[in-house]
Amino acid sequence: MTKRYAINWSIWIGIVVGVYAILYTFSPLYQYGCMPCTFVALPLFFLSGAKKSEFADFCTSACMGVVWGLIFLWGIGALINHGWIEAFANAANIFFWTAVLCAFHFIVNAKTPVFSKVPMMFGGISSTFMLGGENWWVIMITLCCGVLLAFLCQCGTLLLDESGCWKLPSKTNKS
User: Fold this and answer.
1) Residue 53 CA to its chain's centroid (Å)
2) Which end of the chain is more exposed for a tag (fewer CB within 10 A), N or C?
3) How many angstroms separate the CA atoms of 150 and 16, rounded?
4) pLDDT on residue 110
5) How far apart are alpha carbons 106 and 121 in whole angstroms?
6) In the prediction, which pLDDT does 169 show?
7) Residue 119: exposed, middle, or buried by beta-carbon count in 10 A (0-12, 13-18, 19+)?
8) Which residues is 166 bridged to in the sheet?
């Protein structure tokens, strides 16, 4: 990647992320305080190559991660309500549910194009933890918006030639 390419792609990414921030801020979702979830999902999808064919899998995996996060929080709360010390309740639940999540999704779901992105699930779990499980549906929507944002950032490469000069996209480019 040339310096020009890096600079121009960075400009594209900045514009796309800035427009997203404006749109999200004016959307009804903003009031729930979940916008940081966007920036959990964005790097997970973006760094994986932002393949159009994996878009749906990343979104479903993000949503499944929120479900897992709610299960983790439920388990932690249940043990605390049974008198466990919080640190041990956290450790026991995180150990148990992480093992179940990984075993299930690595083994059972490894060959399906849905719910197979375990790193994205952990993004969903961390977002759910970050927000205490409140407004889980907004977390899901925002994580999927983060995946979309990453994909749009990746699409900026279609507007650059190999040296990093701006160009119109051609039909031979593939994302």
Assistant:
1) 16
2) N
3) 9
4) 64
5) 12
6) 83
7) middle
8) 160
Q: What's the confidence (pLDDT) of residue 174?
A: 55
CB-based contacts of 157: which residues, under 8 Å, 6+ apart? 9, 175
- Work out the number of other CB atoms within 10 angstroms of the CB of residue 51: 13
DSSP states of 46-109 as a string? HTTT--GGGHHHHHHHHHHHHHHHHHHHHHHHHHHHTT--HHHHHHHHHHHHHHHHHHIIIIIS
Classify residue 112 by burial, with Cβ atoms within 10 Å: 0-12, 13-18, 19+: exposed
Considering the chain, what is the average pLDDT of its residues?
93
CA 76 from centre of chain: 23
- Cα-flanking dihedrals φ and ψ of residue 160, to 5°? -125, 140
∠ CA 157-44-99, nearest 5°, is 155
Do 16 and 149 form a contact (C-beta atoms < 8 A)? Answer: yes
